[in-house]
Structures are given as structure tokens and as C-alpha cells.
Amino acid sequence: MHEPRPGIDAPDHRGRIGLDRTGRDLDRNPDVRVTDVEVLASAWHVLRRTTLEYRGPSGRWETQQRETYDRGNGATVLLYDRARRTVLLTRQFRYPVYVNDHPDGMLIETAAGLLDEDDPATAIRREAVEETGVGIGDLEHVWDVYMSPGSVTERLHFFAAPYDGAAGIGERGGLAEEGEHIELVELVIDDALTMVRDGRIQDAKTIMLLQWSVLEGPFARKD
Predict the structure, then answer these.
(1) In this structure, are residues 46 and 19 in contact, taking their beta carbons and an 8 Å threshold?
(2) Measured distance CA(158)–CA(208) in Å, rounded
(3) Each residue of 143-182: pLDDT tens digit?
(4) What is the secondary structure of 88-103 as a DSSP string?
(5) How far is the C-alpha of 126 from the C-alpha of 181, rounded, in Å?
(6) CA gyration radius, the chain
(7) Bridge pairing between strands 155-162 and 106-109
(8) pLDDT for 89-141, tens place per residue?
(9) What contacts 82, CB < 8 A, 6 or more positions away?
């Protein structure tokens, strides 16, 4: 008898069990057979090593291994003021970019967060209030996108929503009890796009939504 393994055959600190079962029952692709799933880490999110058999174009089966990082799915929203041609973004410290050559780790982003147990629209309304203090009215769904499909399972739900910049905004947002120290950044859309071009905005989801806003969204030219 082996000792119960947290997250596998005994609840871990988040009450999860069966983390090694994810993917074993997949059958949507007849050229893929999952044969083993190993949990490498599950302190908060889950890192797995999956062994699978893949049938290539020649018809031969190959054994492959893939490591996947599962942090759940998330949502993000571009807050915009059409009349003032502004967007409301956030700036906060992100250690992963700091350790990978970003000058100071202070990344400018659209408001975003994990879904947890909520649907995407409910989750992003919650995150927008927590991060910016701005309530959201009508949400426009833009896309659902896999952001880093080589290793991260996350699918991010993209939204846009108007805010009333004329009513005033605060300087900071975030939940201190969660270690969030967020500075609010209001930018004219043309200035935001300049910051994309010169590298001051480097966050992928933010760049995607800013470019959408001028191609198809609230700042698109109406010919």
C-alpha cells in the first residue's frame, strides 16, 4: 500500500483529486491515444507530463511526450471610451516577464483574470471591477483564443466594453490581500498603438485587442 498522493487519490490543499486522469479518456482524434499522465507539480496550478501515441501521415504510430501547464481558462476585456478615444489599461509587476528580459517587469495590460468557477462574462465583470474599479455595461464578445498552445492549456475569452472616462477613474486597483498592486493607465488609442510599435506595450492579449479596436471595433474608420 502506498501513501495517498495529494491531488491524485487524496484531496490536495485545494480539494482536488484525480489530477492524473485528465486527458486519459480523450477520443476525438483517432490518430491520438493517451497512454499515461504523470502529475509533476500541483502547488496551485497543475503541470503534467503526458505520454501519447500519435499516428503520423505515414500511418506509423509514434510515442511522444508532452508537458502541459493547466492554470484554467481566463477572460480579458478592453475598456474603451469611444467619445474620448481612450482605453483604460493596467500596469502591474509580472515576474515571468521580468525574469525573461523585460526591463522592470511592469507590464501594461488589459484587465484580465481566471474564470475560476464562473462563466467568462461573469468572470470578466468581476475582474474588471477588482482591477480597475470600473463597472462594465454591455459586453461585446470578440474571440476565444489559445494563447500558448505549445505548452499551456489556457483558452482566453476576449471581450470589449465601454466605460465612462468623463466620470473620472481612480489611480490604482487590485486586491491587496491577493498581492495585487495595480496602476491604472488611461491612454488615447493612437498613443496606445504607438506604444505597441515602440515596445512599451508587449502583452499579447492587449496588443490583439488594441489592434481589433481600430480594425473592427469602436475606433474603426466608418467609410
Answers:
(1) yes
(2) 9
(3) 999 999 999 999 999 999 999 877 666 655 555 555 568 9
(4) EEEEEE-HHHHTTT-S
(5) 17
(6) 21
(7) unpaired
(8) 999 999 999 999 999 999 999 999 999 889 999 999 999 999 999 888 899 99
(9) 162, 218, 219
